[in-house]
From TrEMBL:
CDD domains assigned to the protein according to its UniProt record, in alphabetical order: CsoR-like_DUF156_1 (cd10158)
Organism field: Candidatus Avoscillospira avistercoris
Compositionally biased tracts (Basic and acidic residues): 15-26
Gene3D superfamilies with a match to the protein in the record: Metal-sensitive repressor, helix protomer (1.20.58.1000)
Bilayer-crossing regions: none
GO molecular function: DNA binding; metal ion binding
Start and end residues of each stretch annotated as Disordered: 15-38
Native organism taxonomy: Bacteria, Bacillati, Bacillota, Clostridia, Eubacteriales
A biological-process GO annotation: negative regulation of DNA-templated transcription
Superkingdom of the organism of origin: Bacteria
InterPro entries hit by this protein: Metal_Tscrpt_repr (IPR003735), Metal_Tscrpt_repr_sf (IPR038390)
Name of the featured protein: Metal-sensing transcriptional repressor
Length: 122
């Protein structure tokens, strides 16, 4: 349960879509006052949990004095996993949040998306 609480707090702190119903079926927070569902919440949480576990393994490799080249390869794998999580969130955001924003003429949501993309691709 501690890991779930940590993940949940992290998701809230970073504005990441998630569920409060315990099964990951949907996200109930809205952007700009209009709630909508994120279909990939459970997949995102699973991917994040795997990436966190992988990163813990890399930390152990460093603690154990493993070969630097092996550690670098594993860091690249973790970075790739995190980027893929970001892509899933971005696609979900475009398909749901941005569609809602356009329907509600919410220019702030579009501006926020542009800023988020800028930070994500750096």
């Amino acid at each position: 349960m501690e890991q779930h609480t940590h993940d949940h707090d992290y998701l809230h702190a970073h504005g990441i879509a998630h569920s409060h119903d315990g099964d990951g079926a949907g996200h109930v927070h809205g952007h700009g006052g209009h709630p909508h569902v994120h279909e990939n919440t459970k997949a995102v949480l699973n991917r994040l949990s795997r990436a966190i576990g992988h990163l813990e393994s890399v930390k152990k490799m460093v603690e154990d004095g493993r070969d630097c080249s092996e550690v670098l390869v594993q860091i690249a794998a973790v970075r790739s996993a995190i980027n893929n999580v970001g892509k899933v969130i971005l696609q979900d955001h475009i398909q749901h949040c941005v569609v809602d924003a356009v329907e509600h003429n919410d220019q702030e949501a579009i501006t926020n998306l542009c800023q988020a993309i800028d930070k994500f691709v750096k």
